[in-house]
Amino acid sequence: MNTKKEDAAWFAVHTYPRAEKKVSQLLKAQGYEVYLPLQRQLRQWSDRKKWVDMPFIPSYLFVFTGVSQLYAIARAHGVVRVIYFDGKPVPIPDEQINWLKKMLMHEIPVELTQEKLEPGTKVVVTGGHLIGMKGELISYKSDRKVVVRLEKLDYSLVVTIPLDLLQDAAESVG
To answer: What gap in Å lies between CA 20 and CA 15, rounded to an integer?
Structure first.
């Protein structure tokens, strides 16, 4: 697509259930830059087990494009809608897409939840693959975990980070 870089942003696209891979292929064939977060999972059938790449966020993928292209994307076969709030398309910050890519690329154990998590202390990761990532420290299932909210999609990512790799974000400013 001939989208000017300064006009382009990541936008969330809601697909029909189990249509994420087909929609991704279709939009890529039309020239769009598409990111479909996939996570390898062991699936059980009656006669065998197999590792398969499953969409990490069911029924969602991300397209890097300009606002002017969103109507055409929304009309693509398998697309339910592009995510809008208050009548305007909502760009997903590059930083959130990059963290999602990094977590899945390094196979960092990540849990996706729609559970509303109470905000806690803002923290920054000081080591490991996620160095520099900011989030909220919460108590969840009796473990200490960092939460990165994808508020535009109403999902949260729950990642286990050793406490010695966390620093209070207020202390890291400066």
So the answer is: 6
Rounding to the nearest 10 degrees, give the CA dihedral for residues 90, 94, 97, 101.
170
Instruction: Specify the pTM.
Output: 0.75
Q: Residue 39 corresponds to which tokens in the numbers above? A: 């996570």
Who's near 151: CB < 8 A, 6+ residues apart? none
- The two beta strands, 166-168 and 155-159, are unpaired
Q: Rounded to the nearest 5°, which phi and psi values hold at 115?
A: -60, 135
Angle at 143 between CA 40 and CA 106, to 5 degrees: 30
Q: Residue 171 burial (CB < 10 Å; 0-12/13-18/19+)?
A: exposed
Q: How confident is the model at residue 130 (pLDDT cuts 50, 70, 90)?
A: confident
